[in-house]
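Allow me, if you will, to draw on your knowledge of protein folds for a short while. The matter concerns a single protein, recorded as an amino acid sequence and a row of backbone structure tokens. Kindly check, if you would, that the fold set down in the tokens agrees with what the sequence suggests. You will find the record immediately after this paragraph.
***
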Amino acid sequence: MAKFLKIIPERCTGCMQCELACSWVQTGTFAPSRSLIRVNIFDELASYAPYTCFQCDEAWCLQACPVNAIAIQPQTGAKVVIPEACVGCGLCTIACPFGTVFYDPKVSKAAKCNLCDGDPACARACPTHAIEVVDADGAGWVESWGQRVQKSFVEAYGALAAETAATAAKA
């Protein structure tokens, strides 16, 4: 069955252990800048949220690759970069609407989460279990999290957003 990473932002403390574990497993260095999972800092909410490839069904990165250097791994369903085939054009990084396909200048290739062959280092390293490996049929978490983020945004910036929308409607 296909797998993906379920992110539980409420549990994230911003310790960045997931970034360190990922960079070590993927590149052999402790370099968060080369990690394939990133922790987003929401200053206005004083909270954190890891983000990485959703392994989405649409797979825009896979569709955009002109040399078929992104394939679906049968064991996990992860969309993975085939380094030997990648020419480093970067079209996959542009095609991903989530910004989770990266260009690694050290090797001049694309890089994205491959779920560590079914045993993601980020999930193992997370001390608060903010990252879980789940079956793909549980992807509904993204919608509920998005709704909570939208609600927080509206509460924090509601008046400004309403004013901006009214001004735009008049134009």
Observations:
- Residues 140-171 form one domain.
- The first helix runs from residue 17 to 27.
- The chain has a mean pLDDT of 88.
- The first strand starts at residue 3 and ends at 7.
